[in-house]
Amino acid sequence: MRVTPDDVRHVATLARLSIPEGELAPYVEQLNAILGHMEALQQVPSSGAAAAADAARPGMALRADVVGAVPLTRLPTEFAPAMREGFFLVPRLATHEDAGEGA
Amino acid sequence: MSRSLLDLTAAQLGAAVREGRTPASELLTASLDRLAETHAGADGLNAIVHRVGTDDAAVQPLAMGPLAGVPVAIKDNFATRTLPTTCGSKILEGWVSPYEATAVRKLREAGAVVIGKANMDEFAMGSSTEHSAFGPSRNPHDRRRAPGGSSGGSAAAVAAGIAPIALGSETGGSVRQPAAFCGIVGVKPTYGRVSRYGLVAFASSLDCVAPFGRTVDDAALATEIISGHDPLDATSAAHAVPAMRVGPGPLAGLVVGVPKEYFPDSLMPEVRATCDRALEALRAQGATIREVSLPHTPYAIPVYYIIAPAEASANLARFDGVRYGMRLEADGVQAMYGATRAAGFGAEVTRRILLGTYVLSAGYYDAYYRKAQEVRALIARDFTDVFASGVHVLFTPTTPTPAFALGAISDPYEMYLSDIYTVTANLAGIPGISLPIGRVNGLPVGGQLLAPAFDEPTMFRAAYALEEALGAEAHR
């Protein structure tokens, strides 16, 4: 698989990077050189290895599947100007019909 | 202030302040004087890029703990509330965090005083600290050479005597490699042992908070202080923190594995000879030396340089000109994102974001990313199998060569190869330590010990014994 200038333009767009046309060529060349070394992985028989290893990996921190409070360094009540029933109260947007009534 | 005060260990300095023999302000002044002295001139170390002033309120010790008044340097990718956190990048120029990293908080609660933020390769992507918006740091042993990276500023600060302890971070060896280049001790704890809360993310499945010390004891002390479960980091492990300052002692019953893949025929002969002397010292302490094999080692660099950039491409998406740091105005929001990121990131970060986005994109995900994850699992299994066979720790060189000259390596993949002996521990999540074992052509050489997950005490047991056995020879 060879990386082309179009590939670099495409991934730059995905990655929100504006790369000038004049600077594309070195990236094309470097990505091809780097990915060339990655081809060695295709020689390794590895099917299913990831799933088996994940199950056996020691020390992996797993949380229980329950909904709880999000841990924060400061409680929301300490930095929110106002709260009601667990939600932040904020000024109404001016575009709302009843703007001016306040929160 | 005399250099001799700064030559004391962190443990000794903390005791001196706690017992009232030395005022904390004297340590701070000594540290900042040393910083000024080593940073002067065109070949200054450039290790510390944001520093405190002596009148800052933040430089008062919070407590008379084990690190009372001890100056520490913090890598520029840890959130600190008074000094800027810029990750060596233009895109975060001047940014000050509204919160503090857990590891920094724990050091300060033990009494440590943060004297500055240390230079680094931009967003921790590099092995030489040459990829920093602040310019390269220099190796205190030879200022024409790199201190290693990406935590090169932290390593140089400790080696130069500015601080006895510093915080760095590891994704593929970014503490062990500069520790080896600078002749100090660097510890990569088990993944999950130390909270990553407040460490700016590079590759979240690999990133570890990792301390430096000039001695094994100081490195063990720092590791012990920053370890422990933290509800603010979902990947923080619930394991109890064992005593890590186990001290030197005989190694009877300890089996040290020597993986043959880390000693190829191409290994620099002087590095091999230095490792042989270290193994002989371990044997003399009572350890049994056994050759072992970690057969998937040759694939570690390709695996790492797929997984790490892939995760980085997602983690660095947040630096978009809206939420953090600099913004370049442009015609429309997409153009603003693109212009800001292109101007804010350096060439190495841009290259890795492009690489990471490519290997995750449709049509290439299975060939690269999924394959790399599978081979990563095989690399981890190699370690599990060796440790299950009765080996307690592994010994290897930390790096293939001593410190290279600044500017000597321009090919990105050649630079990646300097991590060849360190990335495996990050991929497997196991702990590792690099300590000085000798010199080649006047430059320090590091030896690496690796242990099973959450068995830092055994790793430190071997490291203390090796440090004591080698003594002055390690620094000759």
Walk me through the structure:
The complex is a heterodimer of chains A (103) and B (476). Chain A has 103 residues and is mainly α. Chain A is 36% helix and 4% strand. Chain A has helices at residues 5-14, 24-38, 49-56, 76-79, and strands spanning 83-84, 87-88. A two-stranded antiparallel ribbon of chain A has the order 1-2. The longest helix of chain A has 15 residues, at 24-38. The radius of gyration of chain A is 26 Å and the shape is flat. Chain A starts with a helix and ends in a 15-residue tail after the last strand. Residues 99-103 of chain A have low confidence and may be disordered. Chain B has 15 helices and eleven strands. Chain B has helices spanning 3-6, 10-18, 24-39, 102-109, 152-159, 176-182, 216-226, 269-284, 300-315, 333-344, 347-360, 365-388, 412-416, 423-428, 456-470; strands at 48-51, 71-75, 113-118, 165-170, 185-188, 208-213, 255-259, 288-292, 393-397, 432-440, 443-450. An eleven-stranded mixed β-sheet of chain B has the order 1-3-2-4-6-5-10-11-9-7-8, with helices on both faces. The radius of gyration of chain B is 21 Å and the shape is globular. The model of chain B has no long low-confidence stretch (mean pLDDT 95).
Kindly list the characteristics that best describe this protein:
heterodimer; A: mainly alpha; two-stranded antiparallel ribbon; 4 helices; 4% strand; flat; B: 476 residues; eleven-stranded mixed β-sheet; 15 helices
Q: Would you summarize the structure shown here?
A:
The complex is a heterodimer of chains A (103) and B (476). With 103 residues, chain A is mainly alpha-helical. Chain A has helices at 5-14, 24-38, 49-56, 76-79; strands at residues 83-84, 87-88.
